[in-house]
Amino acid sequence: xIAIVGIFVVIGCIVGGYLMExxxxxxxxxxxxxxxxxxxxLGTFLIASPLKVVKQTMKGFSSAFTVKTPGKNEYIQLxxxxxxxxxxxxHEGIIALESHANNPRESTIFGPYPFVLKNNxxxxxxxxxxxxxxxxxxxxxxxxxxxxxxxxxxxxxELVPAGSIxxxxxxxxxxxxxxxxxxxxxxxxxxxxxxxxxxxHIGAALVGTFxxxxxxxxxxxxxxxNVEHQVRDQHSLLIVAKTAxxxxxxxxxxVLALEAARRAVPNSVRPSFEExxxxxxxx
Length: 283
Fold this sequence. Notes:
Elements: H1 2-20, H2 25-28, H3 31-48, H4 51-66, H5 72-92, H6 98-102, H7 114-118, H8 120-136, H9 140-188, H10 195-249, H11 254-263, H12 273-282
Helix pairs in contact: 3-9, 3-10, 4-9, 4-10, 5-10, 5-11, 8-9, 8-10, 9-10, 10-11
């Protein structure tokens, strides 16, 4: 929702300022310039990107409007899931977690926490690493290495859409110049026309440069930054899960492992010690 507000703020301020200076909005309406710039940007993106990257990037664009930033409540859900898993492993052994990790959507541990169930990467990370630790009997440093590989791989893959969107943004100002040059070429073909006609054509050509720069820095580049923030949020969730699992593998009690995981939560959304304790006690 905040992304939609930002789009309206950008458009409103630019159009409002233009009108305050006595501008004529009809001059800015140049459909041919839109076709040249946006169509060429889409074409260059398709040339540069495999089909998998195209799908990931389209998903990244849409996520700016649909994905909610994890807040304190979402982190409390994650911490409670981790505590329930570790407490069960403490009392009944790590093997007791296999049934929950194999079928998390039917699990009594994961079931009460919809945020964790809906986040496929987070859910798979927890379940895969619980099963790996239960079956392989690894040393803690080996377990940490496996989790780090998992996190790094996911992080790199999730950054692909942001990189692709940034490349589109980088190309738009140049494509705006292309549209402007084409407009100038057309203007030169009508050099015998009166000054007011030539002025109109030159103004239309310059709109191409304006649209290219505005599209790049007013819309597309901010979308890339939005996706990067989402990747950081996802990375933070995985780090919290890794901290709890790693602490337990080192032999820490579930309560201490939970506290270590709480401190891995970003400070802006980190629940206090009392808030988390109350949530666990209520459970």
